[in-house]
Amino acid sequence: MEQNKTLATNLKISNFPFEITDNNGNEIYYEGFHGYWVKEEFNQNNERIYFEDSFANIRYNKSKTLAKQLKINNFSFEINDNNGNRIYLENCNGFWYKQEFNQYNQKIYYESSNGLIYDNKPKTLATQLKINKFPFHIIDDNENIIYYEFSDGFWYKREIDQNNKEIYFETSNGTIFDYKPKTR
Question: What is the mean pLDDT of each run of 10 residues along the chain (184 residues)?
Fold first, then answer.
């Protein structure tokens, strides 16, 4: 399949919506006339185990739930973080959700067993720019590396003053060195 073309475009399909179902009648591919598409996979019990769509490339994998892995039979099963935020909940029907919170206790990620994903985690510069060749770096006019990112998401950024001295350094793991002149 050619990159950036949908399945229907590559197959020269012109009747929409275009749908493909598996032998059990599960819709495994859907595409609308506007280019929006969904891909899904189902296990032998007709449970969705994979979901992806053209908007956010959301991936959803259903496997053994955490409570099943831990052999927990007393529901609802909940896990809270050190700040009291519920980061995991599972009920007796197998429904679960997990959440992540930032340092300000604001929800930045939510995922549930029904496929709903809300992702507001900070994105790296390479992710925002859709860069996939690493290491990725930005150089200023004086040939100083002012941003550098590795394929694992680790990055650092620097500020250089007019005398070519580093006045600020920050990494993705929270290290900051700030040598900027302080104003009163």
Answer: 64 84 87 82 78 64 68 87 93 87 87 83 78 86 90 88 91 86 77
In terms of residue numbers, what domain contains 143? Answer: 125-178
Statement to judge: residues 43 and 76 lie in one domain? no
In a domain, 81, yes or no: yes
DSSP string for residues in the chain: --TT--HHHHTT--SSSEEEE-TTS-EEEEE-TTS-EEEEEE-TTS-EEEEEETTT-------S-HHHHTT--SSSEEEE-TTS-EEEEE-TTS-EEEEEE-TTS-EEEEEETTS-EEE-PPPPHHHHHT--SSSEEEE-TTS-EEEEE-TTS-EEEEEE-TTS-EEEEEETTS-EEE-PPPP-
> What is the model's pLDDT at position 159?
92
pLDDT for 56: 58
Domain total of the chain: 3
Cut 0.85: pTM above it: no
59 within domain boundaries: no
